[in-house]
């Protein structure tokens, strides 16, 4: 739990810890791969294998895994029910770099401490986690990369 403050710190961009990598990475105990935040992005992939946009799309529209469409709309004509609580995902790949998208999915609360968007790759500082999910991120490192690879294809 000692890293909770560093991981959850909303003012990470100004903290000077942000660029140091280690001080701001997943902790060994957390079960997460370490990652370094640089500015408002995670420039390096979380997994060795490159993300697959087709798998990423499936995660985004999946009602159990990603749940993204609970809040977001997007270019998913086959999905009847889409959310209206969050920006349309269309064009996300033009608005954000791959590294910026990665950090937004990993932990959106770094940009807006009050965000309703869940942190998809964080295990610390969470409340209301069912016991079966305690200590596990919502998505695996590979799934994060798949989602990021898909979002990067949304150019308009
Ligand atoms: C519970 C609601 C909710 C869920 C679920 C959710 N998001 Fe979000 N998301 C938001 C909100 C609200 C924002 C606007 C910024 C903020 O408040 O953090 C946002 C912002 C974003 C952005 C930046 C949008 C932009 O272009 O400005 C991206 C990309 C994104 N979400 C992707 C995803 C993906 C991919 C998933 C599923 C893996 C997801 N979100 C799940 C609520 C949600």
Low-confidence stretches: 1-28
Q: Please give the alpha-carbon distance between the first and last residues.
A: 41 Å
CATH class: Mainly Alpha
Classified in CATH, the superfamily is Cytochrome c-like domain
Going by CATH, the architecture would be: Orthogonal Bundle
Identify the notable features of this structure and list them briefly.
5 helices, 156 residues, disordered N terminus, mainly alpha, single chain, Cytochrome Bc1 Complex, Chain D, domain 2, binds heme C
Please characterize this protein's 3D structure:
- The chain is mainly α.
- The protein has one domain: Cytochrome Bc1 Complex, Chain D, domain 2, CATH 1.10.760.10.
- The chain contains five helices and no strands.
- The protein has helices at residues 4-8, 53-61, 92-95, 98-106, 141-152.
- α2 crosses α5 (141-152) and α4 (98-106) crosses α5.
- It is globular, with a radius of gyration of 15 Å.
- Residues 1-28 have low confidence and may be disordered.
- The site of heme C has 26 residues, from α3, α4 and α5.
């Amino acid at each position: 739990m000692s890293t909770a403050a560093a991981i959850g710190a909303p003012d990470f961009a100004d903290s000077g810890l942000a660029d140091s990598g280690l001080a701001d990475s997943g902790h060994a105990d957390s079960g997460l791969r370490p990652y370094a935040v640089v500015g408002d992005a995670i420039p390096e992939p979380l997994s060795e294998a490159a993300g697959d946009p087709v798998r990423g799309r499936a995660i985004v529209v999946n009602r159990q895994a990603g749940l993204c469409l609970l809040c977001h709309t997007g270019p998913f004509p086959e999905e009847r029910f889409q959310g209206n609580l969050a920006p349309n995902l269309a064009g996300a790949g033009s608005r954000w770099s791959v590294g910026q998208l990665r950090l937004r999915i990993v932990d959106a609360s770094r940009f807006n401490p009050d965000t309703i968007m869940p942190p998809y790759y964080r295990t610390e500082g969470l409340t209301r986690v069912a016991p079966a999910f305690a200590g596990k991120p919502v998505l695996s490192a590979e799934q994060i990369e798949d989602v990021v690879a898909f979002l990067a294809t949304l150019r308009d």
